[in-house]
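Record 1 of the preview.
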Amino acid sequence: LTDYTVLTPHHSEVDITQRAAVIEYIGKHRPTCIVNAAAYTQVDDCEANRAVALQVNGEAPAYMAEAASLVGSRLVQYSTDYVFSGTKAVGYAETDQPDQPVNAYGESKLAGELAIQSWLADQAYIIRTAWLYGAGGKNFVDTMLQLGQDQSEVKVVNDQHGSPTYVQDLAVATSQLLQDQPSSGIYHLTNAGHCTWHDFAVEIFKQAHLPAHVQPCTSAEFPRPAKRPAYSILLNTKRPLLRSWQAGLTAYMTSSRGQR
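->
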């Protein structure tokens, strides 16, 4: 999107959890498009901080949608596979209605989706994605690479299924969506294919040529504060498929930031 001037306000410039601040900022700059990638994504922490999760993931998108409706902006909202309960082994299409999220994070993100659809149904793209990794923050790939260097065996759960997604591929797909300007609504954008976290770890070690063994375990053996859906595979039925999750991993591993 080289023809656009991009604004990236810091928290000190606009607190997205404050309705008046959001409306003032967007009203002042009147952007063509708002891309909301801000979220409270610490899934386990959300269980103990439900009010904060709802503020950031549910109420803030509502304020952005309201502000966008006042100035005629389009809104892109990133959402998650965790809006689904995870009982559908074949995966979820864009037309599937979220049933009952199994954790506070999923509940808060679903609240954001519903608010946007209420305020701005004809001018919003809700992009659901999953299992993100990339440069600039802690992620599963880097964690596994470190563990694979330090330990001879690593235990990883094998009963959660999803689609690992390289953030660079998601960014490119989002840019293409904005250029094509299809009808408003929900879109599922992940790297193609799906696997378990165990499968993902095996592929990471394979591509990194690490000899560590990946021992499968169940979620029950690795308890966390927040329950995870067993099957949160997102089916992309509306847009060109992204490259495979294995190819996305290769791209990250061979990038300058992916090297460890």
